[in-house]
Amino acid sequence: MRRPLGMQTLREILLPLGRMAVFVVGAGGVFSALMVVLALLCRGSGADKFLLDTQGINIVTYTLANLPQVLIDGVTLGFVYAAIALGYTMVYGVLEFINFAHSEIFAIGAFAGVEFLIAMDRLGLLKAAGPMGSYMYLTLALVVSMTAAGGIAMLIERTAYRPLRDSPRLVPLISAIGVSFALQDVIRLVESLTTGQFYRVIPTFGNFDARIPLFSIPTGQDSTLVDIQVKSIVVIGAAVLMLVLLNFIVNATRIGKAIRSVAQDRNTAALMGIGVNAIISFTFLLGGALGGAAGLLYALKFTRIDPFVGFMPGIKAFTAAVLGGIGNLTGALLGGIILGMLESFAGAYLGTFTMGAFGSEYKDIIAFLVLIVFIIFRPSGLLGEQVSQKA
Question: What is the reported pTM?
Answer without folding.
Answer: 0.88
